[in-house]
Amino acid sequence: MPTPISPITPIRTPEMVQPMRQPGQSGAFKSMLDAAIQHVETNSAQANADKSVERFLSGETEELHSTALAIQRADLEFDLFMQVRNKVVQAYQEIMRMQM
What we know:
Layout (H helix, E strand, L loop, with lengths): L27 H14 L2 H15 L5 H34 L3
């Protein structure tokens, strides 16, 4: 008998994305970007990958596939951040080229 299809769960928003401030307050975009950069700098995925590699190389119970997955997860997270950063920079440059 086939396994029943499970319902779709709602998508969680990342912790680093916070609701917008009031329109009169300045620096909302800057603070959101700073929070995203800080999240990547204190990246727990990279720290987990480093620990996983250390455990694997020291011969502890860490397996090769879990080490490779941890490294790939950290790499993908960083690549995603870089792509988002590039899009933000492109958007900023495009706005700066607009004539008033």
